[in-house]
Amino acid sequence: MTQPVCESIRERLSALLEGDLPPDERQAAEEHLRGCAGCTAEARALRETLEALRRLPRAEPPADLVARIARAVQGGGARRAGGRSRIRRHAVAMLLVVGLLVGIIRVIPHGPPLFGGRRAPSTAPLAPMEQAARPATKEAARVPAAKSLPPPERAPSFDRESSLAESEARRDRSKERKADIQASGPAAIGAVTAGADASAPAGVSSIDLLRHPRSDAAWVESMRRLIVTRPEDLVRGWKALDPKERAAVLAHWKRSAIAPGVAGDLDAAMQRAQDPDLRSILHALRKLTP
Amino acid sequence: MARERDPRGNRIESGVSMTGKDDGPATATVDPDDAPLVARAKDGDRAAFSRLVERHHRRVFNTACRMLGDREAAADLTQDTFLAAWRALGGFEERSRFSTWITRIAMNRCRNALRAFAVARTGPLLVDPPTDPARGPEAVVGDRELASHLERALGRIDPGHREILILREIEGLSYDELAEILDLEAGTVKSRLHRARAALRELLRGVWPP
Predict the structure, then answer these.
(1) Minimal CA–CA distance to B27: which of B67, B52, B75, B62?
(2) Alpha-carbon gap, residue A197 to A281, rounded angstroms
(3) pLDDT of A174-228, one tens digit each?
(4) Distances from the Cα of A5 to the Cαs of A46, A222, A266, in angstroms?
(5) Residues B187, B195: Cα–Cα separation, whole Å
(6) Measuring CA to CA, how many Å separate A107 from each of A23, A63, A194, B53?
(7) Rounded to whole angstroms, how far apart are CA atoms B16 and B149?
(8) pLDDT per residue over A32-42, tens digit each?
(9) Is the separation of the CB atoms in B66 and B166 below 8 Å?
(10) Less CB within 10 Å around the terminal CB: N or C of chain B?
(11) Angle between helices B35-42 and B46-68 (to 10 degrees)
(12) Distance between CA atoms of residues A71 and B74, nearest Å
């Protein structure tokens, strides 16, 4: 049966092995070990476990891995030392966020023009803002909200050194989210724009329009503020870029994506999204629906 | 405590003591100066980058393999990691070593992958221990059994514990490198390592040592 002192010693065994204990604690622990067979056995077991872990054989990579990486770098590795590709990447990230936003709009086919802009005359009468939270189609109703997407990342902050790696990681998470959506079937997918969408920046084949579970009016409003009205607030958080680069991102954004502040364009995107003839989502050249 | 590696890259322990303070970088693999290659790669020299890949892909692969418990996923992740590094090299300011930087990218990717796929290893051994006939059949069976217990325990342990055990015990990184890769304070690194070891012991209690 272990005594309280034994428990206290056992909590410190790893630190003792590592030489991390202060001298007085180390002396007390060693003294205890000399007189306690149980704790001595524990210390030995821990030491032997760690030694065994260190002896685990290394996994040898596939023989062709270096060549595969070289091919990937050769093929898809266009990059740049300067800011261009970084700007492109951030602009794309921003576009994806807007895609999420537009996806929300898509679940309110008869809702009001959320952003107070122009509206095509053919649409249904205006409805209260609260409808934003209500799935309006059978297809939407089938979508399990809990299963859906996590909130989009907002105003990411980067440390310069690993910013692009982090950006890559974010893009990966985005891919994973889409894979998740794919797994849950086409019904879970919001809708889409055409592949050669004129509003997409060069190199982006389409805008992703995904439904988001947090489609309540308050969230929509906060996203609207963040992305549509004041994209500079979002971009300001991208510390990896210097002010010039941030300005370039904004300029690029205003030039090539859905123009910030132009509510009518978002409305139009919403209506395009409702078109039943549009049926696929492309992301990084990967088709997610038939 | 001195740490060396045999020709297969496995670490050889010598003089393990109960209180062996280990201050310096624990990795004893020769860490050639990557700076000239990094500089050339930044200028777009793919051959230089390939040399960096050759030098570091084994560690990235082994780390990913142990983190994910799947060789194929680890190979894909290794490829993606280096591709991301190539693309992001312009932003690498070399405040840390290339090996630390690339491991950080890989570990972030492992974390992302683990969010999507729960890992619970129950299958055959990920890596077969080398068989040394001189040690006799019993020892060989014992090695396999131990490796199997460890792999299972690593598959079941909390990923936060798994990553620090892999980087410290298997890859032999220093506290400083761990802090940088895992984005932790130096003091937190130690306490997390100690908790991870205790958690590993708990998982092996009654199983190993026999």
Answers:
(1) B62
(2) 12
(3) 444 444 333 333 222 222 232 333 343 332 223 333 334 444 455 555 555 555 5
(4) 18, 55, 67
(5) 13
(6) 65, 49, 18, 46
(7) 22
(8) 999 999 999 99
(9) yes
(10) C
(11) 110
(12) 17
The two domains B33-119 and B120-210 share their CATH topology (first three levels equal): no
Asked if residue A137 has pLDDT above 50, the reply is no
For chain A, give every domain's residue range: 4-54, 82-287
**Strand segments (E) across chain B:** 2-5, 11-14
Residues of A in contact with B110 (CB under 8 A): none
How far lies A115's CA from each of A55, A124, A125, A227, in Å?
A: 62, 16, 15, 12
Nearest in space to B153 (alpha carbons), one of B175, B122, B174, B183: B122
Bridge partners of A191, per DSSP, are: A209
Structure tokens at B88: 């992001």
Collect all residues with Cβ–Cβ distance below 8 Å to A1 and sequence separation of at least 6. Answer: none
Q: What is the ipTM of this complex?
A: 0.80
**One-letter-per-residue 3-state SS of A52-121:** HHHHCCCCCCCCCHHHHHHHHHHHHCCCCCCCHHHHHHHHHHHHHHHHHHHHHHHCCCCCCCCCCCCCCC
Nearest to A289 by CA among A86, A120, A139, A114: A139
Quote the CA–CA distance of B94 and A169 in Å, as a whole number.
20
DSSP state of B14: E
Tokens representing residue A101 in the block: 């936003």
CA separation for the pair A100, A212 (Å, rounded): 7
Interface of A with B in 2-31 (CB under 8 A): 10-11, 13-20, 26, 30
pLDDT interval class at A244 (50, 70, 90):
confident
Q: Residue written as tokens 């620090």?
A: B164
Residue of chain B whose Cα is closest to the Cα of A12: B194
Half-sphere exposure of B52 (CA within 13 A, CB side): 31
Spell out the domain ranges in chain B.
33-119, 120-210
pTM over 0.95: no
Compute the average pLDDT of residues A102-124: 33
The residue type of A288 is L
DSSP tag of A134 = S
> Distance from A265 to chain B by nearest Cα, in Å?
33
Fold entry, domain B33-119 = Rna Polymerase Sigma Factor; Chain: A (1.10.1740)
Query: Which residues in chain B touch residue A58, judged by CB atoms under 8 angstroms apart?
Result: 8-10, 58, 62, 127, 170
Name the residue with higher pLDDT: B27 or B176.
B176
**CA dist list (Å): A204 to A89, A174, A256, B103:** 10, 15, 11, 30
Give me the residue from B20, B87, B109 closest to A164, CB to CB. B87
Residue B25 has pLDDT above 60, yes or no: no
